[in-house]
Specification:
By secondary structure, the protein is mainly α. Helix content is 50%, strand content 7%. A two-stranded antiparallel sheet has the order 1-2. Strands 3-4 form a two-stranded antiparallel sheet. Helix 4 packs across helix 5.
């Protein structure tokens, strides 16, 4: 992960922190539009729309053109590439963030971000991930 990719991932956390502080940002992204229907429960507890699951992390980020220009959520709720309109998969996210698909799953899979229940918890998990990844790759 280079400095640009590191900043991108930190901006995901910024989007989550803003969602936790400002109700306007929560209204921009509704979990029902991206991934929620597929996630009935996580860790044996029911989830709600603004639950802070990792799909929420990517959804909040994609809903913030002030933080990134690469993604948007289409009418069907799919994460799409702004340039091509193509639906994005974990492989494209791995390239964008400069990490492998396993780590992408840990961050944005349906039980990623340590099973965070709130955007604030997910932001903390992402910041910790960035710090650990930087330390691991500095050796």
């Amino acid at each position: 992960m280079n400095k640009v990719q590191n900043r991108r991932l930190a901006n995901v956390a910024v989007a989550l922190e803003d969602a936790a502080k400002v109700p306007f940002f929560v209204k921009i992204f509704d979990m029902g539009k991206w991934g929620y229907e597929a996630i009935v429960t996580t860790h044996d507890r029911p989830k709600t729309n603004n639950c802070g699951t990792p799909a929420c992390a990517m959804g909040h980020y994609a809903s913030r053109p002030d933080l990134q220009k690469m993604f948007y959520l289409n009418e069907a709720g799919n994460l799409c590439n702004t340039r091509s309109g193509d639906i994005m998969g974990f492989d494209e996210l791995a390239k964008y963030f400069g990490i492998d698909e396993i780590d992408i799953g840990h961050l944005f899979g349906e039980i990623g971000c340590g099973g965070a229940d709130t955007p604030k918890q997910a932001a903390k998990f992402i910041y910790n991930f960035v710090d650990k990844y930087r330390a691991r790759n500095a050796k």
